[in-house]
Amino acid sequence: MYSRKNQRDLTRTEKKRLVDAILELKRSGRYDDFVTLHRQYYVTDGDVGPRAAHMAPSFFPWHRRYLLEFEQALQAVDSQVSVPYWDWTRDDTPSASLWAEDFLGGNGRPGDRQVMTGPFAYRQGNWRIRAGATADPFLRRNFGRPSAPVTLPGAADVDRALSDPVYDAAPWNSVSTTGFRNRIEGWAIGESRGVANHNQVHRWIGGSMAGAASPDDPVFWLHHAFIDLLWTRWQKAHPSSRYLPARVLPADDPQRDRVFALDQPMPPWNVAPSQLMDHSRLYRYV
Fold it and tell me: pTM above 0.85?
């Protein structure tokens, strides 16, 4: 059992150990493997084939396993490291501690949006983007997207999602109009701008975080650790609510074979959502 801490509570030593472990994964090539995996499983409503990672009920369990795989890779480098979480409802400005020079670095510069500060700045020589949405070899950020401003979600946005007692609902994709999953994943529910919560954070950061290769920015892991924590909070708030769909969809349902029911194994790990409902034997949030 280990702990995942709020990033604002990390000591200077804990930050350095995490950064060093991430950089070692990058040097070894393992980090880029994780980026490639996310790109592979970023399947949209309009794409052909199963959707495990996004726009589907398995959004939470798929990313839980994905984070665990990444965390285990980090711990193979340094057994004392775990993935912290970023509560973007509180640490919601470009001056928040995670954007410091000794941690994730700050915003991209005007023009090409290249990140110039911190250990993941291209000019430091340790962080080359290989699987990104553009040909740029450098990490990019565009906080708040000034040309079409975006704000980070607030506590009220999260509370609205947490109050929904239903996990997910038909049609089990990005246009589901109710359910906790899409309220957090954030495609369209009740939002005229079309994004909320999880998606809105990706857009606020912009740059490398704005596409399927979003793990190119190490903040991805802190963001998704918080998403994982929100799932835990929802489970505690609604103990009688369960993952849906509970059973394989009927043969006449257009989403059959596209989304994963409770006991259907998800690729690439052949692990079912039912095996990822409880993390309490592995880690806890503090």
Answer: yes
